[in-house]
Amino acid sequence: MRNILFVIIILFSMTMNAQDDYVYFDLSEASKNPLNVIHLNLHNKELKNFPEIISRFKNLKSIDLSENYITVIPDWFYNLVNIEYIEFSMNNIVSISPSISNFKNLKELNLAGNKVQTLPLSLKNCKNLIKIDLAGNNLNFTPAFELPKSIKYISLSNCNLQKIPDFVFKLDSVKELLLNNNKINYIQKDIEKLLFLEKFYVHENNISKISPEIGKLLNLKELFLNGNKLMSIPSSISNLNNLEKLYIYQNNLSYLPPEIINIKNLKLLIISDNNIEKTDIIMIINRLPQCKVIY
Questions:
Q1: Which structural domain range is residue 201 located in?
Q2: Residue 294 maps to which CATH number?
Q3: Which residues in 160-193 are b (16+ Cβ under 10 Å) and which e?
Q4: Tens digits of residue pLDDT in 119-155
Q5: Which residues are within 8 A (CB) of 268 and not within 5 positions of it... i.e. 6 or more apart?
């Protein structure tokens, strides 16, 4: 009897897990059992409006409405409090309601490629948010704006930024920071606060100055500085013992700090389209035999 009961429990558990993993790609199918809808993918369905039937999916955890033509997120959507993953990239969304703080379990939010200009202050109350992608929005941040400290990945690529926003330096758990394709002029001293940063993308900006404090990012593995206006690199970069990839091509560099040879874990160094002397390049190649140098 116990064995039979055990088998029933296992089968029930397997059924529930299968249900949790099932992704609905069709609204007509999903509407037949609205409370069973956990994952919904309506990617590239040419939707112009947010389907109202979704309001019945009370157990919804992940939703993908990317690459549609949606402009407005209805108020009722913020009542689906079990939401963990939101993928709304490549739409025409113009605003996010302060009610987004209802999503206490939200882990990932993708709003890339929309028309959002401001974000609600209440977003900082999404304490479980780990990943946020805001790329391609023309964003303006007030001094009071903050994101939850739980953030480990943030993309602010192509957001028409003139400087690195102050709130970024409060994300002391962030591991991956994308600020490429903006109009940023310099990397300020506060960069030292991002001690857990592993990947830093600031390529294709107008950067002409980097604070020496960048040398305190001891966990940094990949640094993208290509396509800027740098004439020099701070010697403190030699402190980045875990750095594996350094992209500094397409700048105005005539030399590299000799201390660069102390980065013993460096595996890839791209320095093409600069004005660095061939003798200096050869010296680096000889002193860093484990590193592939592209010049």
A1: 152-295
A2: 3.80.10.10
A3: ebeebbebbbbbeebbbbbbbbbebbebbeebeb
A4: 999 999 999 999 999 999 999 999 999 999 999 999 9
A5: 244, 245, 246, 291, 292, 294
Of all residues in the chain, what percent carry a pLDDT higher than 70?
Answer: 94
The pLDDT score that the predictor gives to residue 19 is: 60
Q: How far is it, in rounded angstroms, from Cα 260 to Cα 291?
A: 12
Residue with tokens 């009897």: 1
Q: Report yes or no on 136 lying in a domain.
A: no
Q: Which of 194, 195, 199 lies closest to 225 in space, CA to CA? A: 199
The answer to whether residues 181 and 278 belong to one domain is: yes
User: What is the CB-side half-sphere exposure of residue 133 using CA atoms within 13 A?
Assistant: 15
Domain count, the chain: 2
For residues 158 and 181, the answer to whether their CB atoms sit within 8 Å is yes
Same domain assignment for residues 92 and 187 = no
Residue 15 has pLDDT above 80, yes or no: no
* H-assigned helices in 165-293: 278-287
Asked if residue 55 and residue 166 are part of one domain, the reply reads: no
The stretch 265-272 carries a mean pLDDT of 98
pLDDT for the residue 20: 75
Q: How far apart are CA 206 and CA 183, in angstroms?
A: 6
Pair (292, 183) in one structural domain: yes
Is residue 265 in a domain? yes
Q: Label residues 60-81 b or e (16+ Cβ within 10 Å = b).
A: bbbbbbbbbebeebeeebbebe
132 is a domain residue: no
Residue 3 reports pLDDT greater than 80: no
pTM of the model: 0.92
